[in-house]
Design brief:
about 140 residues, elongated
Length: about 140
Amino acid sequence: MLPAHFHCDRMQKQQALVMWIIWFVFLQMAFAYHFVLEDGFPSGDNAAEPMVSWLWVLCFVPIILATIVRWWVIPKLKDQKQMLSALIVGLALTEASILFELFLIGPDYPQNQIVVLMVAVFSLIQFAPIYATPGVDVESLG
């Protein structure tokens, strides 16, 4: 019979693997959206008139909320299932910015689309689930 801590460690590693896979899929989708829903990455010059400011707000508020989830909510969680839920919420918020960028900013502002995509990718990278990986001392990381 195996010790109880062996089963617990194995379960934590499996849950961490699931979190890493989910994170990786969301990260890849940030790029795939542009090839599946559009004709690749945006290119060219922006339209002459500036983009309306509410579009900038709409694209960046979900990223700010995702950053709050990552740096204020997740560190307080101890259970991996709760971390998984917070991970998915944060990733979904960031992906929302990418979808707003694709559908609302549109092809008139390709430079602005790239800016939102770059910031969103950095937001996705911050969610790499090192905080849920067994054996990683989270306290020493921050």
